[in-house]
Amino acid sequence: MKRLIIDVREPIEFKEDAVDGAINVPLSIIESNDKVNINIPKDTRLIVYCRSGNRASSAILLLEAMGYTNLVNGINKQNVENVYLH
């Protein structure tokens, strides 16, 4: 199963410390544009994370409204690395 890790923190946070291979799509961008195009099939497993899981949870609701169907709240960098990268 194909998966994509999405960090929804702001770019400065992403540059400081991110999961290897993650892409940065800040929640602020998702919120401001309901036509966010991350160029992936709607059923790709998206592991969404931030610092505490709160922004990830908000992003998941918005992505679901956009038609994405395989979403996981990875909570934060440590959790993603421990749970989803092994």
Write a compact overview of the structure shown.
The protein contains 4 helices and 4 strands; from the N terminus they run βαβαβαβα. The protein has 86 residues and is α/β, with parallel strands linked by helices.
CATH topology of one domain: the name is: Oxidized Rhodanese, domain 1
State the name of the first-level CATH class of one domain: Alpha Beta
Low-confidence stretches: none
Radius of gyration: 12 Å
CATH architectural group of one domain: 3-Layer(aba) Sandwich
Main sheet specs: 4 strands, parallel
**Termini separation:** 14 Å
Element-by-element helix/strand order: EHEHEHEH
Order of adjacent strands in the largest pleated sheet: 2-1-3-4
Label the overall shape: globular
How many strands in all? 4
Task: Give the CATH H-level superfamily of one domain.
Answer: Rhodanese-like domain
Question: Mean pLDDT across all residues, rounded?
Answer: 92
Helix content: 25-40%
Oligomeric grouping of the chains = single chain
How many H/I helices?
Answer: 4
Beta content comes to: 15-25%
Structural class: alpha/beta
Topology record:
Layout: E1 3-7, H1 11-16, E2 23-24, H2 27-32, E3 45-50, H3 54-65, E4 71-76, H4 77-84
Parallel strand pairs: 1-2, 1-3, 3-4
